[in-house]
């Protein structure tokens, strides 16, 4: 039986990447060392990180006035690091609240300065993204923070907010590299690696040069962008194996045709599920406004919640793993990141149709 894993994260990695890592596990390129056993100061690891950086810069078309940092502490570490490094400009920051992760980011930032909630859809259980015309941006924010893809709720921005000269900061943990973006529209992009990049434990930050070096005096040294930019991400020992695996994922992405090719596949995969949810006669439904549905995390519910347990048990038996929604959201969630092949989505669709037929 072919297994398809719909975990929201840590998520499935491309099979060829795991196979290459397995082949190189004990002896990397004849060096006599595993990547896990190499000094991060040695030429072997330097070549690994240099190649990963160059490939990511090419894949995302990252302009030369942006630094790419490989950090630790996860995306939630950046909930602290972003305000610690950026809020000092005016002491204030704007936060767009579209769900679980943006709420947490906003709460953490409020520990370091004045936070303005620009908009929120909490009153309707975060079932849509508030229209830009409703946003109350402040005049003197150091930055505007938003979450382009809400992993728990299953919402995704299909547009990039135009916030003028104020740096735009995005938590792209769950949709980075899944669609083409113009990096120059952002002041800072961050992402935990564990969905579209590699294993957990690695955190990616892409930050414009002029935003580096302005941290609050209380900033812990391991969260100070300048320290890491100056040290080529190696102020302390980085997540070496995580960077190596991320590098293999970047190579795999390039071989697939890059981000544009990946985006086309992601549109196809998510459409398969959303079209069915619209057309299935109400047995399943999406709680999210049609225009704001995520391509990465397809959240859906069964009309009869009493069938949830049977759906999960039978889907697991059919090799379709980890479809349970986040504990605060309930229902189901099929996370279909870059490494999920179209066949996985087709298998899920067949199962859903069959289950509906038997229980409808
Ligand atoms: N932000 C988003 C959008 C996420 O999906 C997640 C994790 O799933 C996080 C933040 C938290 O990431 P971490 O566990 O790396 O701190």
UniProtKB/TrEMBL annotation:
Pyridoxal 5'-phosphate binds at residues 101, 151, 171, 194, 236-237. The keyword Repeat does not apply. Its cofactor is pyridoxal 5'-phosphate. The modification N6-(pyridoxal phosphate)lysine is found at residue 195. It is found in: Cytoplasm. InterPro entries: Aminotrans_V_dom, Aminotrans_V_PyrdxlP_BS, Pser_aminoTfrase, PyrdxlP-dep_Trfase, PyrdxlP-dep_Trfase_major, PyrdxlP-dep_Trfase_small. Binds 1 pyridoxal phosphate per subunit. Its EC number is 2.6.1.52. It is an enzyme of class 2 (transferase). L-glutamate binds at residue 41. Pathway: Cofactor biosynthesis; pyridoxine 5'-phosphate biosynthesis; pyridoxine 5'-phosphate from D-erythrose 4-phosphate: step 3/5; Amino-acid biosynthesis; L-serine biosynthesis; L-serine from 3-phospho-D-glycerate: step 2/3. GO terms for molecular function: O-phospho-L-serine:2-oxoglutarate aminotransferase activity. Residues 3-348 form the Aminotransferase class V domain. The keyword Transferase applies. Keywords: Amino-acid biosynthesis, Aminotransferase, Cytoplasm, Pyridoxal phosphate, Pyridoxine biosynthesis, Serine biosynthesis, Transferase. Homodimer. Belongs to the class-V pyridoxal-phosphate-dependent aminotransferase family. SerC subfamily. NCBIfam families: PRK05355.1 (NF003764), serC_1 (TIGR01364). Catalyzes the reversible conversion of 3-phosphohydroxypyruvate to phosphoserine and of 3-hydroxy-2-oxo-4-phosphonooxybutanoate to phosphohydroxythreonine. This is Phosphoserine aminotransferase.
């Amino acid at each position: 039986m072919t297994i398809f894993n719909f975990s929201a994260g840590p998520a499935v990695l491309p099979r060829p990447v795991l196979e290459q890592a397995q082949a190189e596990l004990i002896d990397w390129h004849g060096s006599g060392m595993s990547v896990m056993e190499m000094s991060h100061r040695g030429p072997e690891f330097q070549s690994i990180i240099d190649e990963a950086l160059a490939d990511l810069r090419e894949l995302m078309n990252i302009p030369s006035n942006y630094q790419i940092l490989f950090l630790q502490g996860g995306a939630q570490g950046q909930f602290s690091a972003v305000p610690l490094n950026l809020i000092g400009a005016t002491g204030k920051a704007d936060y767009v609240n579209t769900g679980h992760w943006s709420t947490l980011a906003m709460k953490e930032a409020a520990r370091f300065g004045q936070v303005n909630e620009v908009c929120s859809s909490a009153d309707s259980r975060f079932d849509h993204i508030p229209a830009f015309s409703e946003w109350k941006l402040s005049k003197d924010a150091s930055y505007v923070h938003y979450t382009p893809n809400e992993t728990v709720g299953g919402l995704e921005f299909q547009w990039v907010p135009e916030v003028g000269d104020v740096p735009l900061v995005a938590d792209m943990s769950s949709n980075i590299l899944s669609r083409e973006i113009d990096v120059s529209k952002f002041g800072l992009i961050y992402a935990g690696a564990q969905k579209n990049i590699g294993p957990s434990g690695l955190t990616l930050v892409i930050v414009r040069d002029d935003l580096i070096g302005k941290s609050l005096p209380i900033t812990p040294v391991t969260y100070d962008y300048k320290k890491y930019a100056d040290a080529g991400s190696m102020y302390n020992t980085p997540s070496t194996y995580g960077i190596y695996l991320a590098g293999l994922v970047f190579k795999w992405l390039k071989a697939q045709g890059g981000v544009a090719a990946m985006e086309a596949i992601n549109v196809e995969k998510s459409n398969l599920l959303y079209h069915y949810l619209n057309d299935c006669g109400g047995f399943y439904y999406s709680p999210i406004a049609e225009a704001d549905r995520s391509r990465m995390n397809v959240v859906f519910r069964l009309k009869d919640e009493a069938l949830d347990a049977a759906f999960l048990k039978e889907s697991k038996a059919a090799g379709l793993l980890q479809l349970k929604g986040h504990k605060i959201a309930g229902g189901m969630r099929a996370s279909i990141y870059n490494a999920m092949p179209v066949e996985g989505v087709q298998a899920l669709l067949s199962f859903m149709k069959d289950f509906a037929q038997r229980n409808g």
